[in-house]
Specification:
About 40% of the residues lie in helices and about 15% in strands. The structure holds pyridoxal-5'-phosphate (PLP).
Length: about 375
């Protein structure tokens, strides 16, 4: 791909854009806008994993300090407390709730519970891959159904791909990496078509970001459809990706099957403490949704002004068209200390960027204009 200026001159340009925003981070390293680092990646902007740059609320961090003093004990009672809080939050009884070490743990449990040699997984292509890798471990067949031309789940084709061998159907709503949704009505119609012998795993990791009025969580659908499991996470809107807390909600018999595949004490004391505190913090969700959705809209406006294509998103990430294979683009961003999402083979000329702070997102936009000239992205 063609670079319009030398790497060194470009580094200076982006450095200047970033320099305006460099503030001390809570961990002492100098980082754009003070968003904390991941591991030792203290010198770069992290827009690759759909994390929440604002992290947990100050009230939750106090709970974390308290948990530190109890670290010699197993989490026991706190597990029960979080389960009760989640159940109350969703208006269900506690036997509907299964805790996980992140929602990926719920996806893993679903894979081992309902997939096996001779059974199949039906999923969209592209979608979040965790469940597909768990299908590989269980030696089951994977049926990938391409998204529609407007990058949505093709629910008709997914329903048609289901049969008596189908163990699990995965619907990521909103979908990672496209940020598109399945409407509530479409989801209900789909659930009526899928054989009741197949479990439908609905991943609502990005639920809180959705503003489209056609969207509905599947929570109200589980009583009518006991073959449905909903996965939720504290990693995204609650800013707790490093603490690894997620959960599944399903009708009690389905939840019991899922729970049978959990390891003991699979959620740690620190994660439980912050999750409990986060659910008490009524403003946290509203504040983070506003901050991140406003920044996504800011980025979309900047892309519109530049005449660039992107997939309208209901999440804290955005797919942007780059006009050629995205692999060298990802490398060029990395050279400029900006980490971008990986390449998705079936959308190979699209770049997935997570929404960061406004300063981080502005630095990304400045870099994009240099790395991918507008005419190349058309
Ligand atoms: N589901 C989706 C759609 C995701 O994008 C992710 C992570 O990015 C996860 C689940 C896993 O989240 P966690 O295990 O942190 O809860």
């Amino acid at each position: 791909m063609a670079f319009p200026m030398s790497r060194r001159r470009f580094a200076g340009t982006v450095g200047a854009a970033l320099g305006v925003a460099l503030l001390p981070s809570p961990f002492g390293a100098s980082r754009a806008s003070g968003a904390p680092a991941r591991g030792d990646l203290t010198d770069r902007i992290l827009l690759d994993a759909n994390e929440n740059p604002y992290g947990p609320s100050p009230a939750s961090l106090e709970a974390l300090a308290k948990a530190g003093r109890m670290a010699g004990r197993y989490p026991g009672a706190l597990e029960e407390e979080l389960k009760a809080k989640i159940a109350a939050h969703h208006g269900v009884s506690e036997d509907h709730v299964v805790l996980g070490c992140g929602s990926s743990d719920i996806l893993r449990m679903a894979g081992t519970a309902w997939l096996a040699p001779g059974r199949s997984l039906v999923a969209a292509e592209p979608t979040f891959e965790a469940v597909l890798s768990y299908a590989g471990v269980t030696h089951s067949e994977t049926i990938r159904v391409p998204l529609t031309s407007d990058h949505r789940h093709d629910l008709d084709r997914m329903a048609a791909a289901c049969n008596e061998r189908t163990g699990l159907v995965y619907v990521c709503n909103p979908n990672n990496p496209t940020g598109t949704i399945v409407s509530g009505d479409a989801l209900e119609a789909f659930l009526r078509k899928v054989p009741s012998s197949a479990t439908v795993l609905i991943d609502e990791a990005y639920h809180h970001f959705v503003e489209n009025p056609g969207y509905r969580t599947a929570m109200a659908m589980i009583e009518k459809h006991p073959n449905v499991v909903i996965a939720r996470t504290f990693s995204k809107i609650y800013g707790m990706a490093g603490l690894r807390v997620g959960y599944g909600v399903a009708s009690p018999p389905t939840a019991a099957t899922l729970r049978g595949h959990a390891s003991w004490d699979n959620v740690n004391l620190a994660g439980l403490s912050i999750a409990i505190a986060s659910l008490k913090d009524a403003d946290l969700v509203t504040k983070n949704r506003r901050l991140l959705n406003d920044t996504r809209r800011w980025l979309c406006d900047a892309l519109d002004r530049d005449g660039r294509r992107y997939i309208p998103s209901e999440t804290n990430f955005l797919m942007i068209h780059v006009g050629s294979d995205v692999a060298p683009v990802i490398r060029a961003f990395k050279d400029q200390r900006i980490q971008i999402g990986r390449r998705f083979p079936s959308l190979s000329d699209w770049l997935r960027v997570s929404i960061g702070t406004r300063e981080e997102t502005a630095a990304f936009m400045t870099a994009l204009q240099k790395i991918v000239p507008r005419r190349a992205a058309a």
